[in-house]
Specification:
The protein has 374 residues and is of the alpha/beta class. The chain has helices spanning 4-8, 12-23, 27-37, 56-69, 93-96, 124-133, 153-156, 169-175, 179-182, 196-207, 223-239, 258-268, 307-315, 329-338; strands at 44-50, 74-80, 106-112, 138-144, 159-164, 185-188, 212-214, 247-254, 272-279, 284-291, 294-301, 318-326, 348-349, 355-359, 369-373. The chain has an eight-stranded mixed sheet with strand order 9-10-11-8-12-15-14-13. It has a seven-stranded parallel sheet with strand order 3-2-4-1-5-6-7, with helices on both faces. The radius of gyration is 23 Å and the shape is globular.
Length: 374
């Protein structure tokens, strides 16, 4: 079995063996994923989707070349329809990307959907975590998106790119309620073909302020602009201003073992770990998982005297608190104190460095409430 140290050390054979274990859902893959998950959460994850023949693989090939020129390492997961004969990947993107063969900075894996719906194979989330933990700067997921159900890629990707080609007018109409809504960047490839202006106009009516770019990927034209748009979309997602008022940030769940809990959330639900750390002040090991715009926080006690340990001893594992993000924590605390609410602590740093306070259940209707500075 491939070791975590070998995978993180750049051993491509170890990485390939680990990918095979995950794709084949080998029993040892579960423990491997638990071990590598704590090292994930650093890569830029980009989804490239679109109908067959739009030029996704060519665009990916050109994007990889640009990223390598910037000194970045890349992992590509190409999810293709299954062969009805062998069950393997029908299109085989590794064959179409021979220019990167032998480059240790590029790891390409083709995998079949094996009947999974939503455009992704069941093991795709595990492979994303593996490549992220292996230190790849960028992980690209390429998959076929041809209808309203093919939107699962947005669950894994931080930025989703939809690739279309002229003559896709009917396609645009069919996808309005699906993949069109989750795309962050639109790319019209093969922009030298007739009908490009008509397709661009149809996209403008749907895309709003999202970028619409034209490329001739086979010639490398417009690809640099796509990469810039992807990087900008990631930055904007990080820097987007908070909405006015409070909103749910995360649900805190007390568990006896974070590693054991991750078997369910990562391996079964396909959620992605965004942070793992030990919070010494709270005597807990914490893991954050992304769930849309909110998160799940798993909390494992590191000391029998910790608040989480006492909670589990009294009530068992379960929801420990609900966290709300507020635009002005100081002002919120002052309002609560003035109203007589029982605030349990002064603002202090928690998991991920955010500033927070807890409000006693007696003031909130029976639920421990955490307020976080946005």
């Amino acid at each position: 079995m491939a070791s975590v140290d070998d995978i993180r050390g750049g051993d491509l054979r170890a990485l390939a063996r680990a990918a095979t274990l995950i794709e084949n859902q080998n029993p040892s893959a579960a423990s491997l994923l638990r071990d590598v998950t704590q090292h994930a959460g650093h890569a830029l994850i980009v989804g490239i989707t679109g109908a067959p023949g739009a030029g996704k693989s060519t665009l990916c090939d050109q994007l990889i070349a640009l990223l390598r020129a910037e000194g970045k390492t890349v992992g590509l997961i190409a999810v293709d329809p299954s062969s009805p004969v062998s069950g393997g990947a029908l299109l085989g993107d590794r064959i179409r990307m021979q220019t990167h063969h032998g480059d240790p900075g590029v790891f390409i894996r083709s995998m079949a959907t094996r009947g999974a719906t939503g455009g992704l194979a069941g093991a795709t989330a595990g492979l994303v975590t593996l490549l992220d933990a292996a230190g790849r700067d960028v992980v690209i997921i390429e998959t076929v998106g041809v209808g309203q159900s093919e939107v699962e890629i947005a669950r894994l990707a931080q930025v989703t790119v939809l690739v279309l080609a002229p003559g896709s007018g009917d396609e645009v109409q069919a996808m309005k309620a699906g993949v069109m809504e989750i795309a962050d960047v639109f790319v019209i490839n093969k922009a030298d073909l007739p009908g490009v202006d008509k397709l661009a106009q149809e996209l403008h009516d749907i895309a709003g302020e999202r970028p619409i770019l034209r490329t001739m990927a086979s010639e490398g034209q417009g690809v640099a602009e796509v990469l810039t748009a992807v990087q900008a979309a990631k930055r904007e997602s990080r820097l987007a201003p908070e909405q006015p008022g409070a909103r749910i940030d995360h649900l805190g769940i007390a568990v006896t073992s974070v590693d054991q809990a991750l078997r369910f959330y990562v391996e079964q639900l396909g959620l992605q770990v965004t942070l793992r750390e030990t919070v010494a002040a709270e005597k807990v090991n914490a893991a954050m998982l992304a769930v849309g715009d909110a998160r799940i926080e798993l909390l494992e006690p590191t000391d029998a005297d910790s608040v989480i340990a006492k909670f589990i001893a009294k009530r068992g594992e379960g929801i420990h608190h609900i966290a709300l993000k507020v635009p002005d924590l100081t002002a919120a605390v002052e309002r609560l104190k003035t109203a007589g609410a029982k605030v349990l602590n002064e603002p202090r740093a928690g998991a991920g460095g955010h500033s927070y306070v807890f409000v006693h259940p007696s003031s909130t209707g029976g639920v421990l409430l955490e307020l976080i500075q946005a």
